[in-house]
Write a structure and sequence with these properties.
Elements (H helix, E strand, L loop, with lengths): L37 H15 L3 H14 L4 H12 L1
Helix pairs in contact: 1-2, 1-3, 2-3
């Protein structure tokens, strides 16, 4: 195979740098500097407490409220999914 463009023969190709958006890839909804509102955080925390206490219906209601307030928040969505599994 011929050497990669920009690389002298026998030399490795130049390093490829990731685009700036890649720094937050895979970090979820809040990874790009977004924060959860106080209301969403409260609903999330209370929902998690209800889930830990075994009150899944109450947990689901609170976590659904949190996801309405913070749509696309992966952490809230995961907690809601856990509640839905029972």
């Amino acid at each position: 195979l011929p050497p990669a463009q920009g690389a002298p023969p026998g030399e490795p190709p130049p390093a490829i740098t990731a685009p700036t958006w890649a720094a937050t890839a895979g970090t979820g909804w809040r990874g790009a500097g977004r924060t959860r509102s106080g209301d969403a955080q409260e609903a999330y925390e209370l929902g998690c407490q209800e889930l830990e206490a075994g009150r899944t219906k109450a947990a689901m209601a609170l976590l659904r409220r949190a996801i309405q307030l913070a749509p696309g928040d992966a952490e809230v969505a995961a907690a809601l999914g856990k509640a839905m599994k029972g």
